[in-house]
# Entry
Amino acid sequence: MDDNTSALAAAIGGRVRLERQSRGWTLDRLADAAGVSRRMLVNVEQGAANPSVGTLLRISDALGIGLPALVDSPRPKPVTVTRSGRGAALWTSTEGGRGVLVAGTQPPDVVELWDWTMMPGDRLDSEAHAAGTKELLQVREGALTVVVAGEPHVLEAGDAISFPGDTGHSYANQGSDPVTFSMAVFEPGVGSSPHQEGTDA
# Structure
C-alpha cells in the first residue's frame, strides 16, 4: 500500500474500532453481524488490510453508520467540503483505475457521491446491496458497460443510467480509452435492519 492508501486504511480501521467499542461489541459479534471473517475484521481495524468496497459496506451497515462515515470525521458537520484530490480512494485497479468516494450523508438515509476512472480492461463486479438501494451514474468520457441483473447497457459520454442496486451488477471498460463517470448511491434505512450479503466481490 502507498502512503495515501495506508493512511486511509488506518483511519478506517480506527473508526471501525471506535464504533465497535462504543457499542460494547466484541470482534466476533461485529464479524457475525457484518458477515465477514474475524481475521478480516482484525486486519481492517489494524489498518493492515485493503478491503473491498463490499466488505466496507457490510461493516458500515452492520454498525448502522453507512460507508461515508467510515472515511469521514466521527462528528458530522452541517457543511463538509472535499477538495479536489482529497476523496477516499476505496477501489483501485492494477491498471491505474480508481473509485473515489468524494462525499456522503449520514444515516439513516445515506447518499454517496463517487468519482470513477476505469482504464481499458478494468472491471468491477458488485454484489447486491441492501434492499431499496438505488444507483445513478453518468459517463463523462469514454464508454462504459454496465450490467444489471445480467442485462448489459453500453453508455457513452453524456449518457446516464439509474437502476436498483439491490441486484447484482457490474461496471467494465471494454474499450481502448479510459472512461470517467460520476455515480450516486442511495441506501435507505442504514442501521434500521440487519444487512445480509453474499460473498465479497
